Amino acid sequence: MNAPLMPLPPPGPADRLRRRLWRLVWALTCRFTPVPLLGWRRAVLRLFGARIGAGAWIYPSARIWAPWNLTLERDARIGPGAEVYNVAPVVIGAGAVVSQDACLCTASHDFDRPGFALTTAAITLGEGCWVAAGAFVGPGVSIGARAVALARAVVVRDLPPGVVAGGNPARILRMRGRARLVRGIAAE
Fold it and tell me: How distant is the alpha carbon of residue 175 from its chain centre?
């Protein structure tokens, strides 16, 4: 079940300063590093509070809003141009992949209230799941182990383990793997 969106007070001066320092350090020390320099980028992220597992890949062009709200388990990957807008925590499970230009967005606005208060909810990606190129994962979404969000999918509801989902909004198309059926649709 999707996590409820929680109201968030405006950021204070210390938070804004910490985010500015983070953006500056990433831009100067990581943004233009060669792709194989993974250990360096993992170290810089850890310095800012990220929990990074062994073998995790973070591409230099990835954009991470708040590393202190990031958990990247072993062998997980954040691809080129991917955006992790993690105002709330983001957990990316072991072996999970966030492909190029995908967006994980933990925040929105309460458009039913005056002032459009910022709301947040955590995102969890299960072990071995794949968020394909250009896909969007909204606040409070959990994607189960080995599930796939196809390219350009807009995932605003939880996906159970092992499913393949696509479209806007994303809907379950089939189970991942061969010779399985979902709602009468045969897998390849």
Answer: 22
